[in-house]
């Protein structure tokens, strides 16, 4: 697009944006102005907008107008429309048929697809609403984790305070990792307090557990504070300084470059698994392009979503040093007892398929850029009577584990 046209469109957008975000109703106070300013920064001019049945508005934004390009280091960036390399070989012309683990799973789409799709050349962005920002303690911190948030499976010299976060995970360390893959069972755990959350994801970690930890994360989450509801949503996170000044969820800051017009970060996943009922899962692959150094993300078997440019990171501009897969909840102990916020299905691993949540076919990308089974998988949980994890291995599911739990119960008071 011509620069003048772009500027003109932007000015028009600024002028009409109050109609989009209901900011007209805002009283002119400092916070109101701050909110409006931040909304204008986050929400880009949409070519088309789709109202999702869950209340979200999905803006189809021209690909070259996405939040990534607000990053000073991305000003002259040429978008990579496809990775140079794919660990499953789909870009070399020999697409492998990935076996589906023998489980009958229907394809999972996003809820907003019921009401439309974004055209080619655009990307779908979940619009940030006034009420989203009003929920945040600080407008500037919306979309940024409040606490350091990754499991520390072993006592570390520089132990980072975990602020009541609890995990049940499987992990590997001790090699150089260039990516990770997993198929994650999708549930809708109950959240006790709006400031708590429950998620299932993997972490690709670089560096040590100190103030310069690098992390790339993807999975699903239920987070009333972030989204204003209890829906299960696809999310990503990145940081290059242990969750301090860099990184954010989804596209809520500049960093991730999206190329896909089908999948919106932060959108509700549909459908969800039921207890003793149909099971649904999502596959996520993140890998490093050995040529450009970008970290790519794929959702399902055919949605290459985009990439985190390598220069966002320090350690991860080379490789990861640890991969973790599993669940995390916040236990705020608001009533002096352990939270009742559930992890996964809210049931313990012992209950098995159809009842407990699972993460299956966990794999890593090794130094030769190939996907393979991880070696020497460890497990970790802060308190197995609240949330637990149980490893397994078989032909269809490869390396897998069941994980999760109800939180508060007679053994976890
Ligand atoms: C972008 O390109 C312009 C013109 O070539 C140059 O002056 C500027 O330094 C570049 N910016 C970055 C961040 O590379
Ligand atoms: C989310 O669920 C909790 C109970 O688990 C409920 O109290 C709360 O009202 C729900 N929040 C929303 C926004 O629906």
Explain what this protein looks like in three dimensions.
This protein starts with a helix and ends in a 9-residue tail after the last strand. It has a domain at 82-113 and 151-404: Jelly Rolls. The protein is mainly beta and 413 residues long. β14 (295-299) and β15 (303-308) form a beta hairpin. The strands form four sheets. Strands 6, 11, 13, 14, 15, 17, 18, 20 and 21 form a nine-stranded antiparallel sheet that branches. The radius of gyration is 21 Å and the shape is globular. It contains four helices and 21 strands. 10% of the residues lie in helices and 31% in strands. The site of one 2-acetamido-2-deoxy-beta-D-glucopyranose has 3 residues, from loops.
CATH class of the domain at 82-113 and 151-404: Mainly Beta
Sum up the overall morphology in one term. globular
**How big a fraction of the residues is strand?**
25-35%
Q: Tell me the structural class.
A: mainly beta
Order of helices and strands: HHEEEEHEEEEHEEEEEEEEEEEEE
How many beta-strand runs? Answer: 21
Associated small molecules: 2-acetamido-2-deoxy-beta-D-glucopyranose
- Average pLDDT level: 88
Secondary structure: helix percent: 10-25%
Largest sheet, if any?
9 strands, antiparallel
Q: Number of helical runs?
A: 4
Organism: Penstemon smallii
Pfam families: Neprosin, Neprosin_AP
Domain Neprosin PEP catalytic: 159-413
Protein name: Neprosin PEP catalytic domain-containing protein
